[in-house]
Amino acid sequence: MMNPSALPADEPDAALARRVSLRDAGAFETLMRRHNRRLYRVARAILRSDADAEDAVQEAYIAAYRGIGTFRGDAQLSTWLTRIVVNESYGRLRRATRSRVVPMDPAGEVQEAAMVDENTERPDQAAFRAELRRLLERKIDALPEQFRTVFMMRDVEELSVEETAASLDIPEATVRTRAFRARALLRAALAQEIDVATLDAFGFAGARCDRIVNAVLQRIAMDGT
Q: For 108, which DSSP code?
């Protein structure tokens, strides 16, 4: 497997896409590592499962690798990849719900979380942040899906309204409305804690990144695409 460091770290996505269209595995590895965190977080927001999100990202990458020739540069490559992983994730949801109904938590039933005194000294701040992050992740999972996905893209990945709308194929006004509602629900559940832990939610560990990249590269090598 080619070392991604052999490629310029700042090579634009468009240039990498051209290399990938020529079946440059090193360029594709660089591209995956550059976008892994965002795509995983988006898939995780839709599917609410670490394992399913990893699978969805892998399948999305395979589809992107096979269809990279259709990328014309009209939008950012990151948006194009996000649309693919969104479609793959929703496809998995549809397949999973054909024989059963997945209950959605009503917006009004988000539970109030225990307030933490911001002036209280903690002996182990790192442990506190880890616990708070897990709480935030549970509360994000409890959001209705349409709010959860927009929150993940806007507040966690910090995408623009325009790119979020393009990625999800919804109006920009809808993005703003859903983002506002998601924040209100989470503030009701978490109060002051939300601002502390938002950027750490669903951290993308190095092992997970490596696992996705290696699995995709093995698939490519096996099917000779």
A: G
